[in-house]
Amino acid sequence: MIRVALVDDQAMFRAGIAMVIDSQPDLTVVAQAGDGADAEAMVREHRPDVVLMDVRMPRVDGVAATRRLVDAFGDECPKVLVLTTFDLDESAAGAIEAGASGFVLKDTRPELLLETIRAVADGSQVMAAGATRRLFETFRSRSVRSTGPEYDALTPREREILVRAAQGMSNGEIAAAEFLSEATVKTHVSRILTKLQLRDRVQLVVYAYEHDLV
């Protein structure tokens, strides 16, 4: 069972999303909050696996709330999936930099939202439904950084897999391209994240764009 929490200042929107999520046998809404200021206490009490976080809220927005969650819970932080109205939103980009695992458009079809929640909970999806490559291009356009010793520690195979993952390929697609098993690819991705000190695959994509590897 995937435990989901909702943070959005629109009560009717939260109610609708909660109905969609609770209709699924493997998903359940365990908590709701109307502002990012309440997100940390909510997570501490209910321990969700995924937090659906509105990016624009009147008091504490989704960017600040995401940053607070990552700072407070570290490696134990639930996956944060940002809800936004526009597919190219600087606030959504800021939330990803703060530690969110992706974003999804508010007008996404219900079935795609559910698939995205499952994928983000599993850690297997690079970009949530509705995300575009243009979003990640914003990271490269800001400033290209030189790679450091953390990148030098990667093996040649790990560097190849890093680039393929950053291009949006799934573990299965990488396995087929590299003639490896999915389990082996998953192990490589885990090692890459550890060596680069990254939280998840979305942060891996950001790293690749910031360092002009894609």
From TrEMBL:
CDD domains found in the cross-reference section: LuxR_C_like, REC_NarL-like
**Can you give the residue ranges of the Response regulatory domain?**
3-121
Q: Report whether Ion transport shows up as a keyword of the record.
A: no
The domain of life for this entry's organism is Bacteria
Instruction: Please state every residue range assigned to the domain named HTH luxR-type.
Output: 147-212
What name does this protein carry? Answer: LuxR family two component transcriptional regulator
Q: Which GO terms describe its biological process?
A: phosphorelay signal transduction system; regulation of DNA-templated transcription
Question: 4-aspartylphosphate occurs at which residues?
Answer: 54
Q: Which PANTHER family match?
A: TRANSCRIPTIONAL REGULATORY PROTEIN NARL-RELATED, TWO-COMPONENT RESPONSE REGULATOR
List the Gene Ontology MF annotations in alphabetical order: DNA binding
Keywords on record: DNA-binding, Phosphoprotein, Transcription, Transcription regulation
